[in-house]
Protein 1
Amino acid sequence: MVSPSSVDDLEAERLARLTLSLVFEPGDPRAAKLCAEVGARELVDRLRSDRAAADIKTDAGTRLPYVQPERDLERAAVMGLRFVIPDDPEWPAWLDGLAAAPPLAERGGVPLGLWVRGRRRLDEVGRALAIVGSRAATTYGTDTAARIAGTVAQGGWSVISGGAYGVDQAAHRGSMGVGGTTVAVMAHGLDRTYPAGHVDLVDAIAERGLVVSELAPGSAPTRIRFLARNRLIAAFAQGSVVVEAKVRSGALNTANWTGRLHRPVMGVPGPVTSAFSAGVHALLRTGAATLVTSGEEVLEVVGRVGEHMLAEPRAPERARDRLTVRLQQVLDAVPIGRPTSTDGVARTAGIGIVEARRGLDKLEQHGLVSSADGGWRLTDAALTH
Amino acid sequence: MVSPSSVDDLEAERLARLTLSLVFEPGDPRAAKLCAEVGARELVDRLRSDRAAADIKTDAGTRLPYVQPERDLERAAVMGLRFVIPDDPEWPAWLDGLAAAPPLAERGGVPLGLWVRGRRRLDEVGRALAIVGSRAATTYGTDTAARIAGTVAQGGWSVISGGAYGVDQAAHRGSMGVGGTTVAVMAHGLDRTYPAGHVDLVDAIAERGLVVSELAPGSAPTRIRFLARNRLIAAFAQGSVVVEAKVRSGALNTANWTGRLHRPVMGVPGPVTSAFSAGVHALLRTGAATLVTSGEEVLEVVGRVGEHMLAEPRAPERARDRLTVRLQQVLDAVPIGRPTSTDGVARTAGIGIVEARRGLDKLEQHGLVSSADGGWRLTDAALTH
């Protein structure tokens, strides 16, 4: 990559990268690779002067005569959109991890640039988690996504998702509900909103966080654009949480990208009777994902060592639980009904009378037995615990 | 262990082992170890003649004067119960795995003998799976336990459980419902039934399978007897499935025993909002258990290689899924509305016109586009898939 020595250089680089992003489908690994090898401006020159390899030249030739990057930038600025490139100070370094990840479904590579809507800088996103899942999620899925998003947001983590119905929407809302930063990565141009019903949600995200896309204004979403987009959701985050996913779900593609970036994939289990959890269960079964049940557990997986110390879930400790097995054996030998002699307790417990007596004395100190009425009996405390 | 050379020897061994099992609490690892080292009859002699180590002699001394093994055997025979020992031909070899497993909660070791109710031989149990979980299970838990039990039973596997309410009961019933063999391992004497409401269930199990206990008739269940019993549930099975369990649940003790026997532990996930799945999720999170969602998956985990081949869950394949990414790219470029020229498709797809035309021809063969009315359009098949 050629480092720009002036503002003019930076803007020339921006126009070249925008040109390439208008010519190639997002996530075309050939474009990213050539751009990294020879630089964006040289690649545009080669394509224009017929010096590029046959396959890429043929593909680029169909769109190259029609692109108008300057006009696109002007129009986008009016809509509050900017096109950010790797040479810009706000470019987040962690996206460059995509350069080393092998392609998936023929998509891959560092994006040529990113269209951004929102006042915050891209690198302000900081530590972030992707929370993804079904559009047609159940209320279990959306409730769980919102709860996890709220917890990680309170822990200072941004939440990345795809701005869709279902889990995506719940994740964005869960983050914003506690004042967190959230980023929606879209598979279409930011001059429009899909689904149309999400205009208010996307406006709110742009207000407090960021809306991002590889695609220029005017671009419609397609299947391969969703596949390309998923790698960006994964790359923006230090780990991904799949909340609900059927066995064929785009969320699993995002999880796959997270694995390719060597970042942790997490999955939220659900009822085995729910088709919306079947895709997550498959991830967990193969070991591709770690099971998480709460935002605290998510932070434990991605957090720095010791930063998010998590106590394993425990039931409240009962007096009985503090007893040794031998003392338990003595306690079990004290009948519920009529009082019994020390000898009777020893025989029932199957231990010597001296140890039995010592045990009964200790149990009396714990308030679990009493020796009134000429024999040993369980106390109310022992019976209710 | 002394191998008996005659029927008299076998019966002397049986009486000695019964004596020891009446003197020591079940799963006392000292008794199992000494019995394996010096033989049951020699150990009884040593306890009777004061030649045993002080700790074990003191414990044994409280009960030894009162035991009446011959009388117990006679009375039990009337009730249809037999006391089976390792020298009996029906002793299942796989219980001996307990000899090498380290104690847990001070319980452990091969049982001295087993009380059995039922007409089948102990070793007829054959390949078996333990299915365990909460007594107070939800309907999700009991439905899932019954379904998994039914599937593994149809696969020829016996189902082992503890005869309790909830998951245990559902597992036994699920097995019997498809004509499977099931074994209930109890923590009390087989002259009685806990819970009392399970008389019919336990009768049915004894009729078609087996009811088993380490404890002599007349013995009540206690906490440490449940802990000792759990190791037998694990030892009878080639693997354990935990269906629902709170974070402090006896089912987790059974899972722990299964791990100590180096046999697979499996866990059924559930909603993260259910306390009854929290114990299972903890097992899955630590990697102590493998996630399973069906009986087929259970069989895949425990089955011999290739015996239970399991196809990963898949959604039905659609015509689009068979397309290459490049063909998909062409298909995505064909608009839903008015027909478009090949040149238009090529420009929208961002690929050369020659390849675009070749792609459109292939898509027409697949029935996804048609070239009527002077241009390309999507077919109904493409729109509905």
Note: Chain A touches chain B through 64 residues (CB under 8 Å).
Protein 2
Amino acid sequence: MLGMTETKNDLDAASGARRVEWIRSRMPLLAQAREDFERTRPFEGHRIGMSLHVEPKTAVLVETLAAGGAEIAGTGNHGSTQDDVVAYLNDLEVDGRRLTIFGRRDDDLVAHHANVGRVLDAQPSILLDNGGDLAAGIVARGGTASILGGTEETTSGGDRLRTELAGLVPFPVIVINDSLLKQIGENKHAVGQSVAESFMRITNLMVPGTRFVVVGYGWCGRGVAHYLRSLGGKVAVAEIDELKAFEAALDGFRVSTAVDLAPWADVIITATGRPGVVGAEVFDRMHDGAILANCGHFPWEIDVPALLASSVSSRAVDEAIDRIELPDGRHLVLLAQGRMFNLAGRSPKGNSIQSMDLGFLLQTLSLERIALAAASGSLPAGAQPVPDDIERTIARRMLTAMSASA
Amino acid sequence: MLGMTETKNDLDAASGARRVEWIRSRMPLLAQAREDFERTRPFEGHRIGMSLHVEPKTAVLVETLAAGGAEIAGTGNHGSTQDDVVAYLNDLEVDGRRLTIFGRRDDDLVAHHANVGRVLDAQPSILLDNGGDLAAGIVARGGTASILGGTEETTSGGDRLRTELAGLVPFPVIVINDSLLKQIGENKHAVGQSVAESFMRITNLMVPGTRFVVVGYGWCGRGVAHYLRSLGGKVAVAEIDELKAFEAALDGFRVSTAVDLAPWADVIITATGRPGVVGAEVFDRMHDGAILANCGHFPWEIDVPALLASSVSSRAVDEAIDRIELPDGRHLVLLAQGRMFNLAGRSPKGNSIQSMDLGFLLQTLSLERIALAAASGSLPAGAQPVPDDIERTIARRMLTAMSASA
Amino acid sequence: MLGMTETKNDLDAASGARRVEWIRSRMPLLAQAREDFERTRPFEGHRIGMSLHVEPKTAVLVETLAAGGAEIAGTGNHGSTQDDVVAYLNDLEVDGRRLTIFGRRDDDLVAHHANVGRVLDAQPSILLDNGGDLAAGIVARGGTASILGGTEETTSGGDRLRTELAGLVPFPVIVINDSLLKQIGENKHAVGQSVAESFMRITNLMVPGTRFVVVGYGWCGRGVAHYLRSLGGKVAVAEIDELKAFEAALDGFRVSTAVDLAPWADVIITATGRPGVVGAEVFDRMHDGAILANCGHFPWEIDVPALLASSVSSRAVDEAIDRIELPDGRHLVLLAQGRMFNLAGRSPKGNSIQSMDLGFLLQTLSLERIALAAASGSLPAGAQPVPDDIERTIARRMLTAMSASA
Amino acid sequence: MLGMTETKNDLDAASGARRVEWIRSRMPLLAQAREDFERTRPFEGHRIGMSLHVEPKTAVLVETLAAGGAEIAGTGNHGSTQDDVVAYLNDLEVDGRRLTIFGRRDDDLVAHHANVGRVLDAQPSILLDNGGDLAAGIVARGGTASILGGTEETTSGGDRLRTELAGLVPFPVIVINDSLLKQIGENKHAVGQSVAESFMRITNLMVPGTRFVVVGYGWCGRGVAHYLRSLGGKVAVAEIDELKAFEAALDGFRVSTAVDLAPWADVIITATGRPGVVGAEVFDRMHDGAILANCGHFPWEIDVPALLASSVSSRAVDEAIDRIELPDGRHLVLLAQGRMFNLAGRSPKGNSIQSMDLGFLLQTLSLERIALAAASGSLPAGAQPVPDDIERTIARRMLTAMSASA
């Protein structure tokens, strides 16, 4: 049995390694950082405790940090960990050190929390956090004194630091997600592209002439609306914030509420970050065969429980496509059960490699800044934005990587 | 053993049935034709011999013809037959009749030709042909007298009828592919969409700012160039025909030869229908890491043998992605080994469902016309275009199906 | 009095010369032809009789023909002649020869016909015709024997040669307007650009979010619809031909009839070439303040007489903008009284200089072909398309002139 | 003589009235404000001192304020005052009160400053300021105590209040130009549209395929770049700020410095707000016949003195088009002598009517807020942004005015 497990792990590690290779070859920003780090070794003597979605692109980030001298103890998110990437990383030996990544896709919540605990047990000095879990854990343990600082991937983690954990975190935490580079490069362009690709990939439907309603005109919604219109779709925007609605109207979109636009829509895509923005009132007015999809982070924007509760029956008709029969004879189509459909279906790739190269360089240089600032104490405690000089450095490197001048 | 085979077939048929369902629910043009045919029964007493790529969309075409009273004996193309769809169709009973579809994905060329023979053995009166194989076979057998007429899917089949088979085919054959509706709906828009989707799906690369060279500005090339530019790509067109080059320049594209544009290209996509349009002279001038892909029907547009012959090594780095190392230290990336990359990789869906609904209605109404004209002798012998009234009927129905006025 | 007239003419000629200079400096195709002609002198010994709209761009065409050795006797169209350009041309001396251009803007129809007669009196051997007036005149005079051949600018002139004058014209006439280059370069792109520019210039209204209905999806309509949508307009297409309507729908436009779209429209623009396509049924359904404009050649597409007949009052509210009050309290706005509004208002420039450079090179090389073919008799009699080699030559030169490869 | 002058004034007033009518009929936001003001009379008992560019759109603003009960004493900008609009306004009688607008187009700077003095002499209680001239004047006079507050149209006026006049202005001043609505509606969309229109109107050149370099990717530059690309132009962006350069690259533009892009450019358009961004180094590298134009507020972005100093000769070849001959045989073309070319040439209309309706409603409601807040003292002293509730109110009204939901 042990033998078999080992074999399984070896296979996993090999699969992970192969999947990481193409990705790594298209991440020039991290490649340059790795090359720099091999000389400068900013993390020498530090252990980074990491909590982050584990997929092949993440592996390239981890390799980069390790090349900077970091020891790494990490765990993935609950439910999305890719086992072969974990196996690959645990197999990796950098300068004679081994990385330690906990977690498997099938872990239940109890197991996941245990993994977070194990990361903290490893006594990290720097945190790469996600949703504030590591920061909250270290506060609960009374162990904040040993932490130099860290980064936080999400906006909601940043909010948590500023409210629930306000005053309790004596070290600096750079919040990555509010970076303008990330908003433009990832939320607008990468999500826009990924939603367009995923709609075509999953449904195999024609885009030109199809009537889309994009709910929300934040950075993601802007991207989704523009990409779908570029492909020939007829796009309307549902937005309740007047200023964003105004921007959408000036951008040439039809603008109204989701309820008003519902009868017209062939497809409704939510991108608001808010719960229940599409519910019974919308379902009631959609035409037979219309499609519902969500690309927001949480699976709550479409009120799926209400939809199913009011339905006669529901069944999968293709990968990530459910057909919901309603009592009045209409049916609606739900993609990915209301979860992020741009990460669903066969062979979802998520955000483009280059957009993650950008996002992870934000992580990398912010973590380097934390390590360097520890000595000088030059960063204030608590949540703070990515330093302007880091944003500008990355923007310049990205322009070079894109050969933007040609 | 027999039991197991039966079980396998049953599973296949169930899988095929499931995959066909979503497709069928999004083919309103064929649905309407089927409903009409159930009343009018234009194929009553006829057997249609079919040679056509067998995938789920094809199944809906076959069901439609069967609903019109046709007996059907068919075979797929060599190498692309989807076994579960064959199983599903062979299981189908329409009005007490069973369909007969020959062929499996693993058939070698000998087996494939045997299948074509079996279709002819079934003594069809109407042919749904592909590349002129059935027409040539029936001529070789001296059996043309029993044929009322038929359709031909491809342009090259039409050419064959006008040259090699000129004067030998005493029955009318309507050539589907030259239809303006098909050029616009399928070659321009469906291929354009599918190429954009497949590039993103297979490579996971960012489109905005990426430098694409589209080789060829026929209907397919036009679609590919416009769709990629719409997504933010920088697109140049390589075209040797002056008139098409002029059109591309007026459409705002940079226009030159593939050789001239090679050093600038991040990605070269061929869409010309001609062999060897991208060869050694282009490979030599491409930058390190540049990508080659083809969306033309035949896998000969990129001179892959020359590329491999001049390479140091080649290996797959991801699904449908090969990395080719060159002696001068550069590497190039080849998608789908030079075959249609829009049908490659994990989960390729091909042209959009609605574009095939359109294309197959062209087939359906042309076959109906063949059956109806047989009595009156109102169609001339030999290759001929889709009758204008059929084009107009379909255009009108498509506008309705798209709810184009909303 | 004579003195004053001379002074007036001199001023006119100077004004004409100045206006022609900028134009000439941006017509590289005609510049190259002129340079070639100075060596090859294809029109040596020939007199070209010309009937064509006289404006600064036309002057550059005339200079080019003169540089090829032609004597020229010409007249403008009725009502659009620009007097300073006539003065400039009549002042011009090329190789010691003077050009003779008849006509003034204020000429009435009688005077205009007299001018056509004077052109024929000058005994041309080659005709540069417009609407078939010169060809019909020469037939009426029984003077066709002295004509080597000619060109015809318009489609309707070509039609006239093929019907009314069929069999009566023993010399070749190359019909310019059916050229694919002209359809793309002029009808689609130049008219599209000019309509967009003129709408903004005349009305000073915002384009993004404005609802346009483009009536007709021929080459002009395609251009107009695409250019307005590109600028952020919401664009619908009214088209009764099923095939063009299909193309518009696939291009992502809302498609219906003008009557259906009327209540939605902020602006209706006609581009069909047909009389009365927008009439009472449309006027009745338009909203208060909606705008009517036409860009088709003839001022008959909007039924202006019916509109005025049903109105309470009408008055100009700005240059080329009339406000029409209706009995039900609504008002409509009519641009340029239903004439081509892209040639109306203050400072209309018409089609872009380069598009006319292209169109006039078609004229120039076709006239050269007529002169050269006269000796060999290699062109058939009657109306015929621009020879393919001329189209390809011009396409190549235009690509060079545009520096299309950069 | 007096009689003649009166006659001239009468003619002017009539011309002004006519030009204002079309504009007023397309300013629904001001129309609604006027209707509201006729009931609420927020300016009853107040005199507004105004310094603002006087053209027909401004007249509608003035009428609106007058309808709210304001007495108005105003002056235009130096050099741009439209005399017929002044005449029209001075003729206007609202509720028995006459407006007083000083200034004529031909006023020299001394005369202009005298007019500013006359506005202050009129003892206004509220200021509608432009560049801080009125605020600085009132401070210099020691008369600030009589001022309730005001608005400032420009960003540079806002800066002046925060620096030179900091602490000296005891009343609130709402700075209009920083409003997000104004940035989007005016700087991006209205300037973008106006630049595209003006380039076509003035030069009569073809946009598709033309190579534009837009210098600056602020709100104006973004608009200009997007509008020109939409029309088929090849557009590159020159931007030295890394973050904006990054955004431009992600938006799919070629991005570099003006010097690098100079040889490629057919047209360079400056939109930076900074002096000398295009100078000798750029001129030296531009190709023969390339075009220079500026749309930034000040006429200093192109270093015209340096260009002329290094030239052999310069002359006008058409309205707003100068041809500059250089010693090396090249010539460059300069539009509008480096001033805002979107306000130059024959018949310039400037920003779209609706965008100014929006901008002037910002003025109107901000001035109303100043008047209402005077009693309660609810606004702090000094420069401040447009209150959020006003922005949202206007956004909602604009959506309604655009019928954005259709």
Note: Chain D has two domains: 2-175+352-401, 187-343.
Protein 3
Amino acid sequence: MRLLVTGGTGFVGRWAAAALVAAGHEVFVTSRSSVTIPGCQVIVGNLFEKETIDTALDIAKPEVLLHLAWNVEHGKFWHAAENLDWAAATIRLVASAQKMGVRRMVCAGTCMEYDLSSNLVCSEATTAINPNTLYAVSKDATRRIADEFASVSGFEFAWGRLFFLFGPNEHPNRLVSSIITSLLAGRPALMSSGQQVRDFTDVRDAGEAFAALALSNVRGEVNIASGQALQLRELAHEIHAAMGGIGELRFGALPDRPNEPARIVADIIRLRDEVGFRPIKSIRERLSETVEWWRNRLASESVMPS
Amino acid sequence: MRLLVTGGTGFVGRWAAAALVAAGHEVFVTSRSSVTIPGCQVIVGNLFEKETIDTALDIAKPEVLLHLAWNVEHGKFWHAAENLDWAAATIRLVASAQKMGVRRMVCAGTCMEYDLSSNLVCSEATTAINPNTLYAVSKDATRRIADEFASVSGFEFAWGRLFFLFGPNEHPNRLVSSIITSLLAGRPALMSSGQQVRDFTDVRDAGEAFAALALSNVRGEVNIASGQALQLRELAHEIHAAMGGIGELRFGALPDRPNEPARIVADIIRLRDEVGFRPIKSIRERLSETVEWWRNRLASESVMPS
């Protein structure tokens, strides 16, 4: 099958593209810069430009569009104006893809679309929607338009909601990366209370789950997550253990964020039973692999402490 | 004050632009084609193109943006793909205007964003949102993004929700126009049961209300309507009377639409008390003027029945 993957060079997208290639599909990937991706045809361009959208659709002639691109700067993306550019680009991409006769479209959403104040498990069917960042509002609004458009135009539409991720190429300031790199550098890993409960997934599994969703005929919202409720404190201890217990975890060194939800955990019944996706490895194994990835990365950058 | 009005050549926008000019402001209007609008500087271009957006903002350097453009074909606009183009264009316009430092933005929404199933008066503060057409979903989603963006970026944002309109230049197939043109042509005016209750406003008043909203500092959603609950049957009788009782109204000749809300009426307290807008003329007077407008129009087109 021919698939067009946007964001196919990104944190999640590279694993989705790789999984689709591995499954024998013809995969086209859009990228802002000229890169080589094994098994994929790369289409260079900027999705904010209509010409790129049209060219990509024209070259790929995809049966399925997997739209994962939505890049905003780490630390700024919650309230960045660029969210509007991505919402607009996504809406235009969906409109153009429909015009081209694309049969199925799958886009990436976020757990932050949910009303997280109840601290209940987030279910696609029953949890209220109440995004309260520009990022999540933009995602939610984009989904509303694409979903309604799908229902009046007849294409298949699915929306995978990502929860918390870790894994190769994660931004070094994000939680799992920062714990690993601090400990590897011989610094204590400074953390908040660590009481918060989150649903963490390895990005390779998230990418594969998106590939599975793209290849399925499941419609509507699907949580892309592990379904495992992990306290950040436990997560840190897992990482610490995976590193052989070197270094120190310092809980409470950083303040908890005000109004931070106590619990963000996904119901993964749709992903598991309807999409049929199950990760091959445990979170523990994936954390070990991620530690190993960082060791290699830092070694190759020659910035490892002696 | 410098204002940029999009859709300033349109059904509503021309009256908004005229009201702003009459109030002594410096008004810039975007238009797809080269036209002359008294007192306004026209910027020709297509808002679907980023260049037009940037050029218009650069020329106008507006303190206030009044975005009324959202053109889709009559009879098709409820579910037209073009709604996505307009949503994307609006989001990009808002993003660019914020970047340019525009202090205040006012956009046009629709009463169809409300949950109309209760048949209660639509209040900005208390009526639930539940759009169920692609048009209304696209408007609602666009508003969600712009509103959140305003709250994180600090510009003023208002959203005027239009209810039912009539007046000069209305599409001839729409309700009031079709009654008038049928009767003028000596044909019976074919209607549904006419039991439905709607809130009708003359488009000149709606345009002036938007101008008032643009010039105010009122934020958030504001119903742009008359607040008058008028049964379609009564409306038809008013038109009939304004025409001196010529011709015949044939109620029940057309079917009512399935699932049509029985009642769509606006709470206009915000428009009246916060924006301070009150129409000068009654609906009855405006209907008479509209009949006169159609008489002149048809006479000038030499298609009047002898």
Note: The radius of gyration of chain B is 19 Å.
